[in-house]
Design a protein that fits this description.
By secondary structure, the chain is mainly β. The chain is built from no helices and 14 strands. Strands 4-5-6-7 form a 4-stranded antiparallel sheet, with no helix packed on it. A 4-stranded antiparallel sheet has the order 8-9-10-11, with no helix packed on it. A hairpin with a 4-residue loop joins strand 12 and strand 13. The two termini are about 25 Å apart.
Length: about 170
């Protein structure tokens, strides 16, 4: 899991990623990226591909998605959500789903900056942090959970076009 050691303080410490060995109970931790003029802030979402050991997190203050190799406890990349800057707290990502078949991370973006934050989007990245596509047209609340996905069919479901509806999408 990942957390902010100082409650997401502006200019605060970098997020901490904690690995737990469920057999022994031993924990190992490593420091995450802390980019942007205000730092990372809270960790809003996290997912790990159990087959490759790649973790992705979203952070609040800098609208970034961070990618880590949990085996080596090192960073792979920290990337901005599309059209967002590193001080765009209002455009930060939230929940993350991992497609272990295609090695993709699907990030919920409640205030998609590329359309002036009128809609929400699901933003897709590969495990190296490369942008694959954005799927706009959703209506997410703040701190939206990850979408439900079916990797075999490359389809998923999330809230939209209204809060009380589900919307199917393909990626």
């Amino acid at each position: 899991f990942a957390l902010s050691p100082d409650g997401g303080a502006v200019g605060g410490a970098a997020p901490v990623n904690i690995l737990v060995d469920y057999t022994t109970g031993a924990t190992t931790q490593f420091t995450g990226f802390n980019g942007g003029p205000f730092g990372a802030g809270y960790v809003n979402g996290m997912a790990v591909d159990p087959n490759t050991g790649v973790e992705a997190t979203t952070t609040e203050l800098n609208a970034q998605i961070e990618f880590y190799n949990v085996s080596t406890r090192t960073g792979i990349a920290a990337v901005q959500l599309p059209c967002a800057g590193d001080a765009d707290q209002g455009n930060s990502g939230a929940g993350i789903a991992v497609d272990t078949t295609h090695k993709l991370f699907l990030v919920t973006d409640p205030a998609y900056a590329c359309d002036g934050s009128r809609d929400s989007a699901i933003v897709v990245y590969d495990e190296r942090g490369n942008f694959i596509e954005a799927i706009p047209g959703f209506k997410f609340a703040i701190a939206e959970p990850s979408p439900a996905i079916d990797p075999a069919k490359r389809l998923g479901w999330d809230f939209g076009p209204q809060f009380s509806q589900l919307q199917q999408f393909f990626y």
